Amino acid sequence: MTIKLHYKYYKPSIISLLTDFFIFIIGFFVVIEWLPLTTNTPYEKYTGAAVFYYLIWVLISYYLGRYRPLHKLKYINQTLHLFYVSILSFGIAWFLSFLFFDGYYSVYIIFTYTSFIVGITFIFYLIYFMLLYAVEYEDEPIKILEREAAYLKPAPPLDNVSYETLCKTLAAHSCQKALEFLSNQADLRSGNTYVNFSTSFFDVNAKPNYIYSTIINLEKLNNIRNINKLFTVVNQKLPDDGRFVCCFESKSTRKKRILNSLPFGINYIYYSINYIYRRLMPKVFFSRRLYYDFTQGKNRILTKAEVFGRLYFCGFEVLVDKKIGELHYVYARRIQQPKPTTKKSYGPLIKLRRVGKNGKIFDVYKIRTMHSYSEYLQAYVYDHYDLQEGGKFNNDIRISTLGRIMRKYFLDELPMLLNLLKGDMKIVGVRPLSNHYFNLYSKELQEKRVKFKPGLLPPFYADMPQTMEEIQDSEMKYLTQCEEKGTFLTDFCYFFKILKNIFFKSARSA
């Protein structure tokens, strides 16, 4: 194998230079302190030689291109260049020592020093390129096309034989109850209804635009690698107000199925392992790509909130959902264009867009307590779930089990201290709201809200309101007092009322 030289001048990467520098220093101290040496003054003897050896290493590395930006290089090539540099550097150092110093410097020391540097650098490359491989996993986004004349193109109905064949296929693939549900939601006899059984979005993408008023995808979403791509393609193929049906196994259903199918103790162990493998690994940045490489994305654990959130994110509105057997069937309507594709973060710290003082939109920092894509379900939850005491929603599907615990003890709000330090919020004040909830408030309350900064401790905890109307009355009273008595005095009084209710009356955010 030939060595590819890079004699053309380039700006070396500072990170690569510093990495080599620190590895050389660490290696020098390890060799001097740990190896049995024949000299009593090893630092005086080897410091100058180590500096000279480092300069040889840097020059050869530069000419072989090792100091180009790492993210633009390939792992194999960089590893080979490391191997070449080590051989050439060792050879030159040994030759100069033999020629000019008559073996004054031990070949064993030079070889050990070189081996240590190569070993540590190799480990660094391995970790770096593994992380780079994981982080750079992003499929090419579907281009969202402008819609022109998005009206349904009528098609002739199916003949009796084709219709009966389709019904038999649907019943065999799913079940009779699923067939009945599909028949109630869509006209299966219509030539404008398309049924897809594939795990890939390519089959749908190959269909002409606006031919089908209803698209039914009967492969459960847990086995589909690019769910958002499928939803986006379906959105583009459907005419305005088109309908879409999909199905999935929810997290709660899988948990119940596993726990009921295995002996007690073993069932919880197996479910925990399954949850880590099928739910967490596809979400964590350093394991996501490896997971998809091994499994092709099949049999993932999905929550109801995530599936619904993805549908709303991709321009659909959920009309009907029904559990049939172990699968949830969802009947949705196309209402708008999909949102632009963005990289989703599944980390524990999230940023939420909220309305602040003077109507300025700012990011509120919180610990994640909701399932992914829950931020797109505010309108759905508001329309489908009743409010409990305190203005919270009953059985809010968006909140995870761990999230409920964190909300109970205010742990999810600790990162909001960053907003306090940045000056976006103050200690006492109305809760920062999303645009959706802000627009649900009366015009008068909206105008009062934007006059003041939102706060970490809302007046809710002082007045303990039970309904949405009482919450708004509580905020109106607080804001009016801020206008009449001043913000400092009002916040001072509310602060002690809030602490009293939190510690002695168990006021909680969940």
Task: Explain how this protein is built.
This protein is an alpha/beta fold and about 500 residues long. It folds into three domains: about 120 residues, no CATH class; about 170 residues, 3-Layer(aba) Sandwich (Rossmann fold), CATH 3.40.50; about 150 residues, no CATH class. The strands form three sheets. The protein has a five-stranded mixed sheet with strand order 1-2-3-5-4, with helices on both faces. The chain has a two-stranded antiparallel ribbon with strand order 6-7. A hairpin with a 5-residue loop joins strand 6 and strand 7. Helix 5 crosses helix 6 and helix 9 runs antiparallel to helix 10. The chain is extended, with a radius of gyration of 32 Å. About 30% of the residues are buried.
| Residue share in helix | 40-55%
* Overall mean pLDDT: 87
User: How many domains in all?
Assistant: 3
H/I helix tally: 20
Output the CATH topology of the largest domain.
Rossmann fold
The biggest beta sheet is recorded as:
5 strands, mixed
Classified by CATH, the class of the largest domain is Alpha Beta
Give the distance, in angstroms, between the N- and C-terminal Cα atoms: 64 Å
The number of strands is: 9
Going across the major beta sheet, what is the strand order? 1-2-3-5-4
CATH architecture assignment name of the largest domain: 3-Layer(aba) Sandwich
Structural class: alpha/beta
Low-confidence stretches: 1-6
| Beta-strand percentage range | 5-15%
